[in-house]
Amino acid sequence: MPRSPEQNRAIREKRMRQILEATLHVYRERGYHGTEMGAIARRAGLGRGLIYYYFKDKQDVFISLIRWTLSGWKELLEEVTETDQPVAARLGEILKKTCALSLEYSDVSYFHQTFSRDIGVLFPDRVDEVVQLYEENLWRPVRTLIQEGVETGEIQVPLELGERFFFSVLFGAINYERMIEESDLDQWVSTALYGLVGRRE
């Protein structure tokens, strides 16, 4: 009996997820140049030919990996940014949730921190496409929230400075070489939002 379109879609999604998860593991072990399609196939438990059925080449696999992982990050951001909490509370939630996810999915955190530095070298013809993925899924949602805080007066620094500060704090905390421990998250977020001298009422 032939499969329904829904069954085919479910199988396709499962296979692509297997391939992308395998790519994350192989990348962490071998880096981009060492991540060969055969190694991805072996890690995924699939035939090499099946990888090419879903992806045109290795570059296509990695751009799909960027898109897939960032879409999950965007969902997290939207869950927080669309609430009616004060801007500072929403920024704090983003910091805590992002750090918790980075601890839980360390391969994803490692991938973005190391891979994003070399996009111009690895994908010279597709830099704009990849940068747009980061813009849509990460930068814009946070920038919009910070802009809201600036406009309402809750954030009292210029938008660009607030954005640079926020991401500096965030990426410093999820640095794969020395990540913030979950037990320190609340204190770290409070310090990031209200400063070393403590919150002023």
TrEMBL record:
InterPro entries: Homeodomain-like_sf, HTH-type_TetR-like_transc_reg, HTH_TetR, Tet_transcr_reg_TetR-rel_C_sf
SUPFAM superfamilies: Homeodomain-like, Tetracyclin repressor-like, C-terminal domain
Record carries keyword Zinc: no
One Pfam family this sequence matches: TetR_N
Domain called HTH tetR-type: residue spans: 13-73
Regions recorded as binding DNA: 36-55
GO molecular function: DNA-binding transcription factor activity; transcription cis-regulatory region binding
UniProt keyword list: DNA-binding, Transcription, Transcription regulation
PANTHER family listed in its UniProt record: HTH-TYPE TRANSCRIPTIONAL REGULATOR BETI, HTH-TYPE TRANSCRIPTIONAL REGULATOR RUTR
Protein name per the record: Transcriptional regulator, TetR family
Organism annotation: Melghirimyces thermohalophilus
